TrEMBL record:
<comment type="similarity">
    <text>Belongs to the metallo-dependent hydrolases superfamily. Phosphotriesterase family.</text>
</comment>
<dbReference type="InterPro" id="IPR032466">
    <property type="entry name" value="Metal_Hydrolase"/>
</dbReference>
<keyword id="KW-0479">Metal-binding</keyword>
<keyword id="KW-0378">Hydrolase</keyword>
<dbReference type="InterPro" id="IPR001559">
    <property type="entry name" value="Phosphotriesterase"/>
</dbReference>
<dbReference type="Pfam" id="PF02126">
    <property type="entry name" value="PTE"/>
</dbReference>
<dbReference type="GO" id="GO:0016787">
    <property type="term" value="F:hydrolase activity"/>
</dbReference>
<protein>
    <recommendedName>
        <fullName>N-acetyltaurine hydrolase</fullName>
    </recommendedName>
</protein>
<dbReference type="GO" id="GO:0008270">
    <property type="term" value="F:zinc ion binding"/>
</dbReference>
């Protein structure tokens, strides 16, 4: 709370987001101990939270319930990496009903073998767009965020990756072709992040 209200490490630079909080599956006791004060801080300040889920499809449910039980507001919470976590449509819609933000943030990441879960198929960008289109059709456009997880050198254009412009240059035009309207895309890119990042 002090880092949000007064600044971090003796500076006047204030934190605007709590996270990303890494969670495993099943949730470890140490992670539960982190989630509880996170929920309390959010309840007190109305600040946004972002969670990095474990790689099993039940993981997002577990930590959202843990946060809610400790007083957090799911509507101010982002669950990242859903594109590699929940594959079943029925389960995804059930999770969407919990009211948190659904982040598809691995655009540009496509590979054959998932080191941590070799039994799953990592979706392609086309698969991500299809899943997002389904969520939009189901009425969840106010809850969707999109991003690319540029975190390694080979993600940069200089080293053969898609770079930071991938969503605007490649994904947005493809979304338009696939029938996602401009106003829905603008919600994902502009309105939803603004709403999430605004303290209540």
């Amino acid at each position: 709370v002090d880092e949000i209200l007064n600044g971090e490490d003796g500076t006047d630079i204030k934190c605007g987001v709590v996270g990303g909080i890494g969670c495993s599956w099943p949730l470890a006791q140490s992670e539960q101990r982190v989630l509880q004060p996170t929920a309390q801080a959010q309840s007190q300040l109305g600040c946004p939270i972002i969670i990095h889920p474990g790689r099993q499809s039940d993981s997002p449910f577990q930590f959202i319930h843990t946060l809610q039980e400790a007083g957090a507001d799911a509507s101010k919470t982002v669950v990242s990496h859903l594109d590699r976590t929940i594959f079943d449509t029925k389960k995804l819609l059930e999770f969407a009903d919990l009211g948190c933000y659904l982040e598809y943030d691995l655009f540009g990441t496509e590979f054959l073998h998932h080191h941590f879960r070799p039994e799953i198929n990592i979706p392609s960008d086309n698969d991500r767009i299809t899943r997002i289109h389904m969520l939009v059709d189901e009425g969840y456009e106010d809850r969707i965020l999109i991003a690319h997880d540029v975190h390694t050198k080979n993600s940069l254009i200089k080293y053969g990756g898609h770079g930071y412009s991938h969503i605007l240059k490649n994904i947005v035009p493809k979304m338009l072709i696939r029938g996602i309207s401009r106003d829905k895309i603008d919600k994902m890119l502009l309105a939803n992040p603004k709403q999430w990042l605004t303290f209540k």
